[in-house]
Design a protein that fits this description.
264 residues; alpha/beta; UDP N-Acetylglucosamine Acyltransferase, domain 1; Udp N-acetylglucosamine O-acyltransferase, Domain 2; 2 domains; eleven-stranded mixed sheet; 4 helices; 17% helix; 26% strand; elongated; Hexapep; Trimer_LpxA-like_sf; Lipid_A_LpxA; Acyl-ACP--UDP-N-acetylglucosamine O-acyltransferase
Length: 264
């Protein structure tokens, strides 16, 4: 244990835990032995860091959060697994991140991720970087969420769903289909509502890139074509570029099918 680490005498920390430099562990926090906590991370009062947790540097884990809890999966029979949290993550009050199962062996949270209060990340999920999960959103097992996606508060995401890059999902949404990149998703039932223009501009996308993305989705959702026909038209009419390739590859690789278009 690093000499500059500050552990409250009221915390319960297993001496086998690997604690980095300048870590702060508050009163009544609970840290089990098979745990790694990176430099300058703060574990606040009443947080639980359980066996299998691997937490990066410069994170803040707020009160009553539980990291690496047992999966809520009846197929789990006690096999060894982990929950990996990247660097600079903020995990707010009462968040739960379950560790993996035999399916993948680990749950992964990337760098610079914000998990807001009462959100849940189930077993074997993979969340990449710069993601925001809103208050009380529930992410089921083996969901994959790509960079810069935002899932607003109270959303329910079905198991095995894939959410691509730069997506914005409306609060309270029930997500059961794959969400292609750059899109704005909302309404009830959920539907494609346009592209995430505000998010793309914040990320530095040019007007040309945004116009091209918009043209691709007009072809997919507004020309009365089925998915196969629409993808063929996109490939023939839209010049090859990173944005086009990402959209095409995501839709072609979707096993659940993508979210429907708006009927309005």
């Amino acid at each position: 244990m690093a000499v500059d680490t500050k552990i409250s005498p009221l915390a319960s920390v297993d001496p086998a835990a690997k604690i980095g430099k300048d870590v702060i562990i508050g009163p009544f926090a609970y840290v089990e032995g098979d745990v790694e906590i990176g430099d300058r991370t703060e574990i606040r009062a009443h947080a639980q860091i359980l066996n299998g947790a691997r937490i990066g540097k410069d994170c803040v884990i707020h009160g009553n959060a539980v990291i690496a809890g047992e999966p809520q999966d009846l197929k789990f029979v006690g096999e060894y697994s982990t929950a990996i949290i990247g660097d600079r993550c903020k995990i707010r009050e009462c968040v739960t991140v379950n560790r993996g199962t035999a399916s993948k062996g680990t749950t992964i949270i990337g760098n610079d991720v914000l998990l807001m209060a009462y959100s849940h990340i189930a077993h074997d999920c993979v969340l990449k970087d710069h993601i925001i999960i809103g208050n009380a959103s529930q992410i089921a097992g083996e969901v994959e969420i790509d960079d810069w996606a935002i899932v607003s508060g109270g959303a329910l995401v079905h198991q095995f769903t894939r959410i691509s890059q730069h997506v914005m999902i409306q609060g309270g949404s029930r997500v059961g289909k794959d969400i292609p990149p750059y899109t704005l998703i909302g309404r009830e039932p959920i539907a494609y509502c346009g592209i995430n223009i505000v998010g793309l501009r914040r990320r530095g996308f040019s007007n040309d890139q945004i116009y091209r993305i918009n043209d691709i989705y007009r072809t997919i959702y507004q020309r009365g074509l089925n998915n196969s026909e629409a993808l063929d038209v996109v490939e023939s009419e839209i010049p090859e570029c990173e944005e086009r390739n990402l959209i095409l590859n995501f839709i072609k690789g979707s096993k659940r099918g993508i979210v429907r278009g708006s009927i309005d």
